[in-house]
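chain and backbone:
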Amino acid sequence: MQFPNDNRVILAIGAGLAILAAIVLALVFGGDREPRTKAEPAEGPGGLQVDLADAPSLEPTRQLRCFVNGQFIGMATLSDCAQRNGLATDALDVGLDATGNLAAAPTAAFAPPPELPDTMDVLPTAPDPAAQQPQPQPRVERASGAPCLRFSGSEWRQISGDMSLNQCVQALYAGTCVRPGDAQYGRHGGLTLRLVPRRVEQSTDNTRFRILADQDRSCQFPSLNG
């Protein structure tokens, strides 16, 4: 058997083998680096970014500023804070307190419902100067409504004598948010209205409240816009 004597043939075979070896090595080492590159984003900045809209689903071990009877008692988990208040976990409001830290407090802990207004004690809103001159108005059918009142300071003030429930809630609370444990009160006919973090509630007896509408991150009530 005779081997080729042409050096060019030998060089071509050697170059082909070198290229093949380089391709194999690139595949082996390239495949080993790719998972590490993909894993780098998981090693980004640490720390929990808290969104108040997701506060009810916080980690069970997360420590919050806990309030009992309106007093700060220290740091506790949401369930521990609820237990110290003698309440269910979902009866606590979670949000930023006056210090800017995440806190938990019983619903309206700092602002219990005021006494129901007496019709003689309700103060009217300041008159509009433009409304002083009587003007003829066309006769139209008006939708059924009721007086809408706001509790401010230590007194009730009427903001309208005839509003629908949705209109009253918007007039009282649109664009307004409250801190955990705080509340703002109003009245629509025979209903007490209460604004607490993330929602507005209603009560027929001024004691037991149920949710009327949820509040979004912009302190608005999208479900009442219709």
